[in-house]
Amino acid sequence: MKRIVLLRLGHRPERDKRITTHVGLTARMLGAEGMLLASDDSGIVQSLEDVVRRWGGNFYIKNNVSFKQEIRNWKEGGGKVCHLSMYGVNLPDLADELKKCDKLMIVVGAEKVPPEIYQLADWNVAVGSQPHSEVAAVAITMDRIAEGEPLEKEFPGAELTIVPAERGKHVIENAGE
C-alpha cells in the first residue's frame, strides 16, 4: 500500500488557518496518512484531530516540525519527496513515476518556499504554470497518483457517515464504532 504524507511549509498562523486546514482535509480525504506542519499552530492540530474523531480514519498531524529533519528522516527511510509549485516538471509528465512511488512526501508551501526545498526534493512538480491554491495542487496531484478511486475511500471508526442522496443531507450517527 502506498504511503503518502503531506509536509506543509510557510504556514502563517495569523493568515493561513483556513487554507492550511483545507490542505490537511484534502490530503486526508484523498488518502494521505498524515500532515507535518512546519509551524506552530495548535488550532490546526485541534481542528484536524476533531475531524478525524468525528469522521474516522487514522490521519495524524505533527505540529511545529523541522522540515529539513522530516525530509531527511523520510529519505533515510526510503521515501521520496515531491514539491508542488508552479515551477518544475509538469505534473502530467511525472504522474506515472509518482504513482510507482511506495513512500511519498508531498511538500506544499504557503508563503515563499525556502530555496533549499528545490534541492531537497526528488521532484519539483509544476501543477499548472499559473498562480493557484495549495489546496488545488494537493487535490489534483493526489487524484492523479491515486491507487483506485480516492473518492470511494472508507474511513473506519467514524462517528458520522454521509449517505449519498440525490437531494438533501443524509448523515447517520454510528453507534460505538
**What is the domain tally?**
1
Question: Given this structure, which CATH class is correct?
Answer: Alpha Beta
Strand sequence of the main sheet, in spatial order? 3-2-1-6-4-7-5
Biggest β-sheet, characterized? 7 strands, parallel
User: Which blocks of ≥5 consecutive residues have pLDDT under 50?
Assistant: none
CATH topology: Alpha/beta knot
The CATH superfamily appears as SPOUT methyltransferase, trefoil knot domain
Distance between the termini: 24 Å
Q: Strand percentage, roughly?
A: 15-25%
- What is the ordering of alpha helices and beta strands? EHEHEHEEHEHEHEE
Helix content: 25-40%
Explain what you see.
It is a single chain. The protein has 177 residues and is an alpha/beta fold. The protein has a single domain, classed as SPOUT methyltransferase, trefoil knot domain (Alpha/beta knot, 3-Layer(aba) Sandwich). The chain has six helices and nine strands, in the order βαβαβαββαβαβαββ. The chain has helices at residues 17-29, 42-55, 67-76, 91-99, 116-120, 134-145; strands at 3-8, 34-37, 60-62, 80-85, 89-90, 103-108, 123-126, 160-162, 171-173. It has a seven-stranded parallel beta sheet with strand order 3-2-1-6-4-7-5, with helices on both faces. A two-stranded antiparallel ribbon has the order 8-9. α1 (17-29) runs parallel beside α2 (42-55). The chain is globular. The mean pLDDT is 91. Homodimer. It is an enzyme of class 2 (transferase). Keywords: Cytoplasm, Methyltransferase, S-adenosyl-L-methionine, Transferase, tRNA processing. GO terms for molecular function: tRNA (cytidine(56)-2'-O)-methyltransferase activity.
